[in-house]
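hey so i finaly got around to running the thing on Transposase from Hemibagrus guttatus. pasting the sequence first so u can double check i didnt mess up the copy paste, my clipboard has been acting weird all day
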Amino acid sequence: MAKTKELSKDTRNKIVDLHQAGKTESAIGKQLGVKKSTVGAIIRKWKTYKTIDNLPRSGAPRKISPRGVKMITRTVSKNPRTTRGDLVNDLQRAGTKVTKATISNTLHCQGLKSYNARCVPLLKPVHVWAHLKFAREHLDNPEEDWENVIWSDETKIELFGKNSTCRVWRRKNAELHPKNTIPTVKHGGGNIMLWGCFSAKGPGQLIHVKERMNGAMYHEILNKNLLPSARALKMKRGWVFQHDNDPKHTARAMKEWLREKHFKVLEWPSQSPDLNPIENLWRELKIRVAQRQPQNITALEEICMEEWAKLPATVYKNLVVTYRKRLTSVIANKGYITKY
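ok and heres what it spat out for the 3d tokens, dont ask me to read them lol
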């Protein structure tokens, strides 16, 4: 039976007043639009306890003792991958028989809920140390320093597949209606590789890399697009270029070319995508592209270029002016991956 809505305090007071005025339970129910049984229950409570307020309810006794709650909470805190079945077995060995649903409810009351584990880069101790070192060294950099950086990266965008994710409003059992589904094909249906850059002032060049990216290709991309991007963005003298530690980026020939061009390069810790704000830009671009549902590679490239140019200026600005928060998060997380 569905739970009925509780009567307001005002309605319960009226029931008691009408009862004291001599009206019958049936008459009161008809006048106020309340069931006769409900009227009777409220009058009996008032006669017995002289109150119309809700009384304390005892409820069913807890299946897991406070000691058992501490035990399972401590277990999942030490090993978050512990299953509910493991916890059921642990409690059974301790003499308490419960269901998996009871385990879930108990952990929910302790502020613990089951989520899908996030996939993050594998961090070795040397990566953690470098991550933390970078954050501490640059924590007090003025905002103007970050505004004078050109951030860059490459990304792959698939025509169909994991990039094409979105939420839909639908009715129950309508999950397979064409309007509520995302078409997929084997092997993703093709993809394109993009190189892009941006600064707090806006987007730089976005390039479709049509051949396999290698050192020579990367050199050509920077040679043709980095300086024009800096000019279009009206970067101040002494602007800084950021790219990660991909072998193509750190090759000797690439380093020599950057020195010859007198480009300042931001020293970058390995395995730290959360420190590069362009990752957030790629995520936003992929969402916008997926919403337009391109049907072929040509359309995919055109839509990527259009959506890149349409991203609001505030997006670029906000990613940079809040950069100190990223560094603070890295320090708070002791060098490990953060929410960014």
